[in-house]
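Case study 2.
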Amino acid sequence: MYEIYKVFIKNYRVYTSEGMIHENDGAIFLKNLTAGKNLEFSEIKEGKIDFIASIDGLLKIDVNTLFELNCIDDIMMATLHNNFEVKKGLKVAGTRVIPLLVEESKLNEAKKIVGDKKIVEIVPFKPKKVGIVTTGNEIYHKRIVDKFGPVIEEKVSKYGCEVIGQVICPDDKDVIKDSILSFINQGAELICCTGGMSVDPDDVTPTAIKETNAKLVTYGSPILPGAMFLLAYYNNVPIMGIPGCAMYHKTTVFDVILSRILIDEKITKKDIAAYGHGGLCMNCEICTYPACNFTKI
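Prediction:
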């Protein structure tokens, strides 16, 4: 082996005259190449480095570049799923050189593939001012008690969001529309509309949202629970039409999309459509979301 690779020691690192790199140096190279913001790192052990979240936030993985990187022999990287909601201190990825010595040419190939992109990073949540518009004649006339408001407030509050108000509207599209626009004029950065999201004749919330002149992204999602979800943008203010399942299920489409909204990601129709693969909740007796298969893309 020594005759083939002509190994010599320099500053406690192993190099060779045949263009070979020691596993530990290779792992450092891959870490520096792929790691984005808000990460900490384990010590190197046998050519392996772990990536650890240094903040609470949303894990973003460049899935296509990760795939290309893993097509190179003798190096690897494994991560949690893209858009995984993480807490500070959670291990989110690991990379290593597989043999003791790796060809320098393979690391150069990795550099060409990754370029200036970063495969792994954590994006912090940005708390928003939230307006809740709850619709329905039965709630408006106090024949039933509103259960939507407390659920929405609890979910957004865990991200540090401020609910600046809740308005309860009858099934009148003009009143609903005006309530949405009023919250936006008050500085709301996210509008959550609850009630009236089905296809019954008196369910006019989707129409009211459209008539604000907001740009509709989708009315409907391939996520269960959450098929009758609506997303639109009034300029840069997201408007979410939240279906009734949010009252009864611990985790729904609202939880999935909310975390991305709170990193200021502009969600597209294709983003929503991609959730079809994995968008079926198993309704486990004990919910472990996000540490489960639901909506992992």
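The chain has a mean pLDDT of 92.
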